[in-house]
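CORE FACILITY INTAKE
Project code: CF-77B
Contact: R.S. (postdoc)
Sample description: multi-component assembly, two entities in total
Requested service: structural model of the whole complex
Turnaround: standard
Below are the sequence entries exactly as provided by the requester. Do not edit them.
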Amino acid sequence: MSGSGGTEAGRFHAWRAAVRIARRDAWRYKGRSALVLAMIALPIMGVSAADITVRSSELTKQQQVTRDIGAADARLGSGGMGHRPLVQSPVNEEALPADQKQDESEQARDEADSDVDPRTAIPAGARWITDQSTYARIRTRSGLLDTSVRELKADDPIAAGIVDLDRGRFPRSPDEMIATQALLKSSGLHVDSLVRVRGFDRAYRIVGAYDLPSELGVEELTALPGAFIAGYTSAMKAAGSAYEGQNGPPSYLVSLPGGYSWPMVMHANSLGVVVESREVRLHPPARADVPFYRVAKTSTGVVQTGVQKAETVAAPVTVGALAILEVCLLAGPAFAVGARRSRRQLGLVGANGGDRRHIRAIVLSGGLVIGVVAAVTGTLLGLALTALLRGWLEEYVGKRFGGLALRPLELAAIAGLAVLTGLLAAVVPAVNASRQSVLSSLTGRRGVRHAGRVMPVIGLGAVCLGTGIAVFGSTRTDSVMVVGLGSGVAELGVVALTPVLVGAFGRFGRWLPTAPRLALRDAVRNRGRTAPAVAAVLAAVAGSVAVATYAASQDRQDHDAYTARAPRGVYAVSSGSDGGRELGAVRAAVEKHFPVSGRADVSRLVYGPRTCEPHSYQSGCGGFELQVPTANQCPSERVDDPTQLSLAERRSFATDWRCAYGGGQVAMDTEGDVTVGGPAVLHALGIRDGAAERALARGETVLFDRRYDDHGSLRLRLITDMAKQQTDDRTPSGEVRTVPVHVAGERTPYGLVAVMPRQAALAAGFRTVPFGSYYTTSRMPSGAQQQALAGALANFGSDAETYLEKGYQSKNHLVLLALSIFAGLVTVGAAGIATGLAQADAEPDLKTLAAIGAAPGVRRRLSGFQCGLIAAMGVVLGSLAGVLPAIGLRRAQLREEWSTYHTAVDNGWGRADSLPHVPIVVPWGTLVLLMLAVPLGATLLAAAVTRARPQLTRRADG
Amino acid sequence: MSSTSTPSDQPGPGDRPRVPAQGSPSRPSAQSAPTASASPSAARSGPEPVLRLEELTRVHGSGATEVHALRGIDLDVFPGELVAVMGPSGSGKSTLLTIAGGLDLPTSGRVVVEGTDLSAASRKELAALRRRSIGYVFQDYNLIPALTAAENVALPRELDGVSTRRARKEALAALEEMGLGHLADRFPDEMSGGQQQRVAIARALVGDRRLVLADEPTGALDSETGEAVLALLRTRCDAGAAGVLVTHEPRFAAWADRVVFLRDGSVVDMTLRSSAESLLTGGAAS
């Protein structure tokens, strides 16, 4: 007798036979194999496509250099430090002064000096072209667009590779430009359009469209050198515009035989020039030869701590593990169906001497075969998908790929996950199949397959342990990680407990009509088969519900934290340039396009020339500062270091009104948040305060922030020249003007500090300059009305700032919908597979039913209810298992915030108006959708796809 | 073993091989046959039986649902011998076979196959015994649909750890020996039922296996094909194997050396084949 079954070689031969059977079976049952294949291959396809995309978007040094400097050997530019020698890094163009000892004022003086001309570092015999950019505001179809305008001879051989001309041609004359696709898209311009620049009377024709291969989203125009920047700069200078002086210094693309070596770079550095050299990038010098590293002793790179690293790794690993678990739970029942259907075959193997090991090997081989095929298919599809969607992916990533980069080891590891998933999914069915006695497999006796007893006990243990950890985490610690860990363990425990929980549903059977009762009894009696499907639904639903609960709670938190700048529907428009000269036209446009029901004009308080823009630091422009009386200053502000104060004192600041700064943001940004206007401003902002209105009517200023109240008056310190104020750090020592005030009860509504009537401002010696209006509307302006107004304002090139208060806009409903759909699909999928399994088992019952005269529809109803039941059980258990951890997480977050708050209070930074607020909201809409719609959908779907008549089985002919 | 000729290609009860009546150590004596016990071997000398059942009982269920499937069965099957088991439905024929093959365990009594006591064997040892000593042939669906005829025959050997090449060689030899070489690479659904059963017999005897347990191997076949299958089984037994054949049909039982009649789990009669024919014609099995 030959008995090599126990040896390594023997095991191998037995496995070969098992794989052969599994391979042929997979081919015989193509439908089921394809289903499992798709389940495993789809995530693999996604992951491998993502891997190829990420790797493809990482360029080689050569590709990156070509995109940066084209075919040139080097790009030379100013180091921004005048003529001071500098040292630069060979890998990027970061530069530091060579001599760090020079004091800062000297450095500032050097920077203010006329900048260095990089051409001094171009060796004799080299060929070069210039590359320079500026910012300009171009007129588009719908208004104005800030864009970069570059001067570069893009078709010069030196520049080859920097721009990628998509259509049209390069500029040939000074009135031609080419535009990036991104610019054409956002501006509505096209090849052959004329481009006009605001404040510049020349027009340019767009003759081509291009991309910057590494920055696809950049909006840029390119003209020939000398065609734009010089003329535009002088035009801006003449108009005194802020756009003057935004030109970057020119850089020079240099081509020279032999390349630009590291010694040449160091020589250029000694002249104050920074060099991006192809040769140095591709072959960096030894570290010892780089003076930069000696100067830059401290590393500028961000070093991740161990914990951060662990978190960076933990998140994707957790997501990956959960995905594998989910696929295993989904695919597991499919293998169980397979094993159940080929029960006779497995029995024959047993009769011919196959022991449990062999039966396990055959079912596991099913997982192996499908896993391997899924690995190959998924990887190939991922590759094909990336190749096919390359253009779209490049747009998404924002840069052209250097080529499709395939990393065999990474792809093999990803593919390995498919094999692992297939094997893991087949483990439980394999063990179950091997436990079947050969005799019952051969005779086809069904019996009731009870679920194992060990798993529920382990599950109960895991639930208790996990719940304990989570409860401890949310009540005793403030660590979200601990709660997450506890919830995870508890959830796995619930998955293991599923058979017992499914049993509990059986009690409801007696009140149900025939078909659902039969379905429920069958599901409960065959827990071994029902449980994995319910667990799959449970896991998917729990995850979705947990995220949905968290998202809904976060949404409420964001909603509560939202600070409106005005009552909902109020529209604020302001214009600070040219002393508000364009306001008339702006107001006319608003009143034409918006359903306006009221208007309150406001002015701003100006000390100095009226043409100065708000908050301007230009020379000659004046300003003022509101003074907080010493008695009203927060005590912590009076000392340099709050830790010098006692703990009790520091804690007391948290409840001290002087330490609570008024919240809110203003819709119109005036100096000191002081608005010049009358009672109409209060009306427009919905501030109902009779005393304040009366005060304004009698010409008294209303103060909303009582910290500034100095015995019934507001003190404003004048600043004669803001430019000088900016360079001088000392406390301003200008004249102080005093304005009598009425202190209002409400604190800084919509960020307002004070509303000052015009006569009060004039009396205090200020100018008032019209600034804008608050409009109340009879209804929220529609999207079309908003676009029409934006278009009208753009048409006359208005600089007006606009703000429409829409109230809090939730971004979460799409997330919730997507989660519901995901959970729904998984539920229907898992329930469908389990129904297939139940059908395979229930065939004799169905035949009996048919024989005793049941209508063909009963078969459909039974199948529908089987599917619906699994979906319902999974959804109910999953919702419970999902809501609870989310609540735990939120509670832990609340504790964490309180802990941070108490630390802040103890340190003297605590503020009464910044108490932690972490609301918990259960997403009832999502839950109802999941609990009702999904099981119903699953029921109908299963009923619809089930054959009403039994299938006749072929009998073997002799 | 047998000194007589093997069945021809067109066998029939008329030209069936004669059983060696005397002198053969593999034959139970005619005198010992018609007793309640089918195991007369206590004082026997000579070769050991391939299969020995001693005081075999099998009780299914307990209490109110208790069913006595077998009650104190004794049976020896010797090399070269084909024993037919007959009886009405529910008489315990199939239970006897499954216990003899180690697929089920007796409630009491002993099953010894080639010297190994199955009651004391572990599940692994039982499986190994099925790979190496016992071959099964069922009524239908005997072959694994995913494997070709040769692969089906080679399966027990491969499961036993024999290399694929060697297992295939042995399988091809077994098929050739039975005149089935031309079916080697056909899948079960490409063969007729008779061909499938003959391949199943080849599989049951591949390697060194000497015990064939056939449970109604002709049940799903027409009579002519059934005869051919039985002829093959007879040939294998004459070549040295021991066979147990469960059947309903007296004409198939007539291929056996002995016929054991079961009723309600007990052996009610046992006869040598020559006597069996007269018994059968007398309607003993009806």
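Facility notes:
- Residues 456 and 500 of chain A are 7 Å apart (CA to CA).
- Chain A touches chain B at residues 1-7, 9-11, 13-14, 16-17, 20-21, 23-25, 28, 344-345, 348-356, 358, 437-439, 442, 955-958 (CB under 8 Å).
Invoice: internal transfer
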